């Protein structure tokens, strides 16, 4: 069964860093673009970042550019999100998701993880 | 970035009756390949989002045929032919036409 399992969330002070991980299983991870999407408490979905299947191309939402870095290790079937200079407004559930179009032009997320919670608070 | 809007933002429904949600984009989502890069997601209470419709009108695997997507360019609609109790949750449209994807604000569907 295709599965994405996020980890690394927690409580962190403003200005500090955190790295999220997403372990993928039961599909050819190396062939899929991947995403991070977040959801602040009681709010809607916000697209955070994307990475191509080979890691050569990355894209970010404007508010995350320069502070967040998406990366992947295809040998470990793992996606990462390095978050620096965290702000209170970064508090959210962070979801890892897979693109639905392997090896071709991406068209969006078809499989989602259960999410990991990040709380930024002093 | 492309801005997505949805209406209504709240939709009380009666089981067995049809329901419809509208989604509009600030720019055309129609690609030269003929596909509209517009997806619909449902987030049920306490769950992760799930894909319902992709490329404007293609039902994702396992999605009941009471769900359908239509539209082109900047105007799209999600229709539920006969609402069931399990369809409650928040419905989001999302554009994938540009490399920076954007979601609509969501439409909360609940039972009257």
Describe the structure.
The complex is a heterodimer of chains A (122) and B (112). Chain A contains no helices and 11 strands. In chain A, the strands form 2 sheets. In chain A, strands 2, 4, 5, 6, 9, 10 and 11 form a 7-stranded mixed β-sheet that branches. Chain A has a 4-stranded antiparallel β-sheet with strand order 1-3-8-7, with no helix packed on it. In chain A, 0% of the residues lie in helices and 50% in strands. Chain A is an all-beta fold. Chain B has 112 residues and is an all-beta fold. In chain B, 0% of the residues lie in helices and 48% in strands. In chain B, the strands form 2 sheets. In chain B, strands 2, 4, 5, 6, 9, 10 and 11 form a 7-stranded mixed β-sheet that branches. In chain B, strand 9 (89-95) and strand 10 form a beta hairpin. The chains are: A mainly beta (122), B mainly beta (112). The A-B interface holds A 35, 37, 44-47, 50, 59-62, 95, 100, 106-115 and B 1, 35, 37, 39, 41, 43, 48-51, 54-55, 60, 90, 92, 94, 96, 99-106.
């Amino acid at each position: 069964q295709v599965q994405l399992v996020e980890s690394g969330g927690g409580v962190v002070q403003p200005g500090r860093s955190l790295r999220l991980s997403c372990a993928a299983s039961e599909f050819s991870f190396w062939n899929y673009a991947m995403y991070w999407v977040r959801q602040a408490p009681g709010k809607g979905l916000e697209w955070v970042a994307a990475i191509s299947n080979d890691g050569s191309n990355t894209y970010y939402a404007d508010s995350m550019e320069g502070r967040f870095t998406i990366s992947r290790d295809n040998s470990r079937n793992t996606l990462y999100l390095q978050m620096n200079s965290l702000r209170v407004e970064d508090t959210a559930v962070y979801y890892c998701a897979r693109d639905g179009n392997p090896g071709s032009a991406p068209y969006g997320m078809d499989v989602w993880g259960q999410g990991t919670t990040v709380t930024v608070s002093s | 970035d492309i801005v997505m809007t949805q209406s209504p933002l709240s939709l009380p429904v009666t089981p067995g009756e049809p329901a419809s949600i509208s989604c509009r984009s600030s720019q055309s989502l129609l690609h030269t390949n003929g596909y509209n890069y517009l997806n619909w997601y449902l987030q049920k209470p306490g769950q992760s989002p799930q894909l319902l419709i992709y490329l404007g009108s293609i039902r994702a695997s396992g999605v009941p045929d009471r769900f359908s997507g239509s539209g082109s360019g900047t105007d799209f609609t999600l229709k539920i032919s006969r609402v069931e109790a399990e369809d409650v949750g928040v419905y989001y449209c999302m554009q994938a036409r540009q490399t920076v994807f954007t979601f609509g604000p969501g439409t909360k569907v609940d039972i009257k």
